[in-house]
Amino acid sequence: MTRRADLANDVAEVLLTEAEITARVQELGRRISEDYAGRELTLVSVLKGSLPFMADLMREIAIPVQIDLMEVSSYGGTATENTGLVRILKDLSSNIDGRDVLVVEDIIDTGLTLNYLMRYLRGKNPASLRICTLLDKPARRLVEIPVDYVGFTIPDRFVIGYGLDYGEIYRNLRFVGVLRPEVYADQG
What we know:
By secondary structure, this protein is of the alpha/beta class. It has one domain (18-155): Rossmann fold (3-Layer(aba) Sandwich), CATH 3.40.50.2020. The chain has four helices and nine strands; from the N terminus they run βαβαβββαββββα. It has helices at 18-35, 51-60, 112-122, 181-185; strands spanning 11-16, 41-47, 65-75, 82-90, 100-108, 128-136, 149-153, 159-160, 176-179. Strands 4-3-2-5-6-7 form a six-stranded mixed β-sheet, with helices on both faces. It has a three-stranded antiparallel β-sheet with strand order 1-9-8. The two termini are 16 Å apart.
């Protein structure tokens, strides 16, 4: 029998409230606007998880921005472990040669996917290439990644909400919460 997700009861605790996220996104938008003042910026969202974050972030940036979307896959056997294999499922739609590019991520975990993506994007000759992540989880880092803008540093917990999912569910939560372990314990 397949278990049905219960948005209200599958959350063990709220790690970051909607208000905390909103305040931090506003602060990041101000910093990015100042850092890129007088320039145009291309935001690259790594689908699907970063979509809510990028949508909110771009509205807080007070300089001209273009957006582009990429989709990469790095999760194989189970939905909770990274395989280290990275595939580009959707590439950029526009040319970033000579452009200032900011990669917008939902979470940096092991760093394997983002490391691959940054090498790939550097090969497209952007004028600058930086990273903005909502969540940084350094406890699981396998590859050192220089991150320019960090929303929150979080502990090594399985988080959902505000774009983050488990089995493509929970992305629509307005907060970041910790998923109850029993939800995914029997799925491994």
